[in-house]
Amino acid sequence: MLIRNKRSWEIPESQATPEDVFRNRRRFLKGAAAGIGLAALPGLAACSDNAVAREDDPTTDLYPVSRDPAFTLDRAITDESVASNYNNFYEFGSSKRVAAAAQSLEIRPWSIMIDGLVEEPRSIDIDRLIRSVDLEERLYRFRCVEAWAMAVPWTGFPMRDLVAMARPLSSAKYVVMQTFEDASIASGQRQAWYPWPYTEGLTMEEATHDLTLMVTGIYGQPIANQFGAPLRLIVPWKYGFKSIKSIVRISFTDERPVSFWEELASDEYGFWANVNPEVPHPRWSQASERMLGTDEQIPTQIYNGYGEEVAHLYADLQDERLFT
Ligand SMILES: Nc1nc2c(c(=O)[nH]1)N[C@H]1C(S)=C(S)[C@@H](COP(=O)(O)O)O[C@H]1N2
Ligand SMILES: [Mo]
């Protein structure tokens, strides 16, 4: 049973709101969510390469950018053609093979609305944004709640820089992000039982943590559509569903947001969603993870191996459901 409350950041915006963001205003949804989850789909190993050449991307000249050596891996980088053909992007269907369908997303022109508890709401053009920040490449582990994992070179910039640009008020406690909405190209969005648009959120502390990355590229190129072009989030110590794709809106609020998966199944997917091998999903263990490509099983690490950097964020939150 889904009860949807109107959240403060959904209150009608000023004229500054770009049309495209609200063209397909989210319909009020009610309905059963039973059985809709992130059940792992077996045996969908990638065998075709749907990645399209990125030469016509207007930011191609910026790539590759130099890798920040501070971020190292304990495993091999996942093969590009494997990662490019095994994605979660429910806007384009619930299978992992959404790469081809995702190519119908037009990633230019693209702007990101910044609103809520900020000094002044504004819309930022993606190319102006990308050219105004310092891009770097980082190798991160990535762990889906379905117990598969990959290791990839992301290109991006610290979300902290975007937060600074947004000039949030001191009353802001959370950052809420939303994905585009366009059911005419995203067939998944015609399935009205999902609470579109895809929504995720972080605390201000999480959003401004050094590891929290706004991603514009992958494998040394502008990010391909299926990975969430032209701008997505990566929070490497949390389950993958927190890392929202194809962002069109970033709002600041003092109320904890309810995210897409939490709204669908709050007993399985909560707000914090930090990786922990000892806290099983209600329907499966989280003790180990299967690496895409090699199918190697690797023991999962607390906070996906980033505990030294992030555990302090949660020291005073021990009563919270930090790990689901
Ligand atoms: N908008 C949007 N963002 C999303 C998702 C989605 O379905 N829609 N899936 C999430 C999940 S469950 C995971 S595991 C990652 C997958 O990222 P990848 O396809 O780049 O590996 O994206 C996350 N971000
Ligand atoms: Mo996921």
From TrEMBL:
Catalytic activity entry: L-methionyl-[protein] + a quinone + H2O = L-methionyl-(R)-S-oxide-[protein] + a quinol; L-methionyl-[protein] + a quinone + H2O = L-methionyl-(S)-S-oxide-[protein] + a quinol
InterPro entries per the UniProt record, alphabetical: MsrP, OxRdtase_Mopterin-bd_dom, OxRdtase_Mopterin-bd_sf, TAT_signal, TAT_signal_bac_arc
GO MF terms, alphabetically ordered: metal ion binding; molybdopterin cofactor binding; oxidoreductase activity, acting on a sulfur group of donors, quinone or similar compound as acceptor
Note describing how the cofactor binds: Binds 1 Mo-molybdopterin (Mo-MPT) cofactor per subunit.
PTM comment, free text: Predicted to be exported by the Tat system. The position of the signal peptide cleavage has not been experimentally proven.
Keywords, comma-separated and alphabetical: Metal-binding, Molybdenum, Oxidoreductase, Signal
Domain Oxidoreductase molybdopterin-binding: 105-261
Keyword Signal: yes
Tree of life domain: Bacteria
EC number: 1.8.5.-
Residues annotated to bind Mo-molybdopterin: N87, Y90, E91, C144, T179, R232, S243, I244, K245
Biological process according to GO: protein repair
Keyword Protease in record: no
Cofactor: Mo-molybdopterin
UniProt-listed Pfam families: Oxidored_molyb (PF00174)
Record function comment: Part of the MsrPQ system that repairs oxidized periplasmic proteins containing methionine sulfoxide residues (Met-O), using respiratory chain electrons. Thus protects these proteins from oxidative-stress damage caused by reactive species of oxygen and chlorine generated by the host defense mechanisms. MsrPQ is essential for the maintenance of envelope integrity under bleach stress, rescuing a wide series of structurally unrelated periplasmic proteins from methionine oxidation.
Entry-linked NCBIfam families: PRK05363.1, TAT_signal_seq
Alphabetized PANTHER family for the sequence: PROTEIN-METHIONINE-SULFOXIDE REDUCTASE (PTHR43032), PROTEIN-METHIONINE-SULFOXIDE REDUCTASE CATALYTIC SUBUNIT MSRP (PTHR43032:SF3)
Quaternary data: Heterodimer of a catalytic subunit (MsrP) and a heme-binding subunit (MsrQ).
Family indicated by similarity: Belongs to the MsrP family.
Protein name: Protein-methionine-sulfoxide reductase catalytic subunit MsrP
Organism of origin: Saliniramus fredricksonii
Gene (UniProt): yedY-2
